[in-house]
Write a structure and sequence with these properties.
The chain has nine helices and two strands. By secondary structure, it is mostly helical. A two-stranded antiparallel ribbon has the order 1-2. Strand 1 and strand 2 (243-246) form a beta hairpin. The termini are far apart.
Length: 248
């Protein structure tokens, strides 16, 4: 079989990331429509369904394999399914946020595949995780820029957890073969660069406060991207009349 080139390897990652980002401006409209038609719990049940179907397909695949490690892979599959199901239940107060598990779980798997086809090693899992974490963080930055969407570090956490669970599952039993291959220098450098990029992205988000961008506001109507800060520091104050805010 002819080996796929870099563009072919990365096309699924690029395409799925594009789908995730393209739905950001439409998310609230979709959420309202689904909630009105089927109830907010429909989001949770959608994730439960995706987890169950994926688990069933993967279980059947490993059941047909006669290779060492199949039993261990099945145990890991069960643990992964339980973890994602628990995460979905934990987010039952915000059921639409559970969709992040599907979005970034799949993205993490696609990233692993792309890196692995370019030469699998121990660094493959870390690189796939870091790339997913970066893209999951940028997701929230885009939401900050889009009208009527909001930045939330908790959502970054969900994206990171989804990506991390997939890579952990691959390491522990689903696809552990690459753990036996020492990471080449190029892969190690990729991990270092991705790690630095993620730290920079998070650092910029943590420093995006009112004091940073308020001086650049123009008189008159505010530009949409300046509707709020990403981060607020100070004491959290809850007022029954005006809501929640932070002291300056």
């Amino acid at each position: 079989m002819k080996e796929r080139g870099p563009m072919q390897r990365w096309l699924p990652v690029i395409a799925w990331t594009g789908v995730i980002y393209a739905t950001i401006p439409l998310a609230r409209m979709i959420q309202k429509w689904v909630s009105a038609q089927f109830g907010a719990d429909a989001f949770s049940w959608t994730v439960y369904g995706v987890v169950a179907i994926t688990f069933a397909i993967a279980w059947r695949f490993f059941s047909k394999q006669e290779i060492p490690g199949t039993a261990r892979a099945k145990v890991v599959l069960v643990l992964l399914a339980v973890s994602f199901a628990y995460g979905t239940w934990f987010l039952r107060a915000r059921p639409e946020e559970a969709l992040h598990f599907v979005q970034y779980g799949l993205l993490s798997a696609l990233a692993y595949r792309a890196f692995a086809e370019g030469g699998a090693s121990r660094a493959t899992y870390l690189n796939a995780f870091l790339l997913t974490a970066i893209l999951g963080s940028v997701d929230e930055v885009i939401q900050w820029l889009v009208p009527k969407r909001y930045f939330d570090f908790r959502d970054i956490g969900i994206n990171v957890i989804a990506g991390g669970l997939i890579q952990l599952g691959l390491v522990l039993g689903i696809a552990p073969q690459a753990t036996k291959v020492k990471a080449p220098l190029a892969s190690a450098r990729t991990a270092w660069k991705l790690g630095v990029i993620w730290i920079v992205v998070l650092g910029l988000c943590l420093n995006n406060t009112l004091s940073v961008w308020r001086p650049v506001l123009f008189p008159g109507p505010h530009l949409f991207l300046f509707d709020e800060a990403m981060t607020e520091y100070g004491h959290k104050i809850e007022d029954p009349e005006i809501g929640t805010f932070y002291s300056r």
